[in-house]
Amino acid sequence: MDFVKRYEPVDFVTGFYAAVATIAVLLSLRSETVAGEGWLLLANALLFTLIWLAPRARRLGPVARTLADWYPVLLLPALYAEVGVLTLNAGFQNDWDVQRLETWVFGSEVSYRWIREMPNLGLSWILHACYLLYVVILYGSPFGLWVSGRRDQARQTILALAVTFFLCYMVFLFFPVAGPRYADLPSNAAAHVWPARAAQWMLDMGDSWGAAFPSSHVAGAVVATGMAIRYWRPLGLALLPVTTGLVLGVVYGQFHYGVDALSGLVLAGLILAAMEWVRERWAAQPAASVVGVLEVSR
């Protein structure tokens, strides 16, 4: 029990995802791809090692403590790449089901029609620029809280982001959806403004196939902004316009289906509500009972 108590909630969340990802790798093993998937097994073993070392790192000093607190979100790009390898090897997609859902929800395939029926250069420039600022939103929220001295709030934000992305990644692993960008791309002027071309180039260089539904871009950006609004309103309000542009931009730029963005919004809302519920429950605990728990654990 003492061994378990040394771990933070973010370690358990990361460990659970690592176990699910390892199962996905084992299920996808094939004779012609053993070497590649062997590397994925090794990478997951290294992730388990980092989780195991995290409590020790938190006792070694400020630098090690920071790395131990931040490692789940720092590893998100690598874990996203792993998802792309596994979904590509799976060799199937569920786009037809999502396209039918989009038509049912919006009346048509809004991700295909919007940029073609409204090829506004200014709108395209703004929305694609917001999409390019995704990393700034994602890491700017916990980093801003961290450097402003709100370390506990930054850790809560990191936990919320880890839960958000790991949930998205688990859906990707077992329900891959390629997304509308792999279909017929628009060729009008709105699709050729500089931010639009930069976004397409970036995705061509490092996108993960099958990682469209739900939109982790939308879910992650909204959670990051929501946590910032909760804990440091000026930071959150600064991120809010960019996040709003990103939510619209993933559909306008044909990066995600409309229902991808909608499901990302729903997921983000659930995560933010859950984090608030946990915070209120903790705050409602009587101070005496908290002190008692601490004394018993000594």
Give, in order, the helices and strands. Answer: HHHHHHHHHHHHHHH
- The helicity comes to over 70%
User: Largest sheet, described in full?
Assistant: none
Strand content: under 5%
Oligomer: single chain
What Rg, in angstroms, do the CA atoms define? 21 Å
Descriptive notes:
- The chain has 298 residues and is mainly α.
- It contains 15 helices and no strands.
- It has helices at residues 2-5, 9-27, 34-57, 62-74, 76-90, 95-106, 110-117, 121-132, 134-147, 151-174, 194-206, 216-231, 233-252, 258-284, 287-297.
- The relative contact order is 0.13.
Topology:
Blueprint: H1 2-5, H2 9-27, H3 34-57, H4 62-74, H5 76-90, H6 95-106, H7 110-117, H8 121-132, H9 134-147, H10 151-174, H11 194-206, H12 216-231, H13 233-252, H14 258-284, H15 287-297
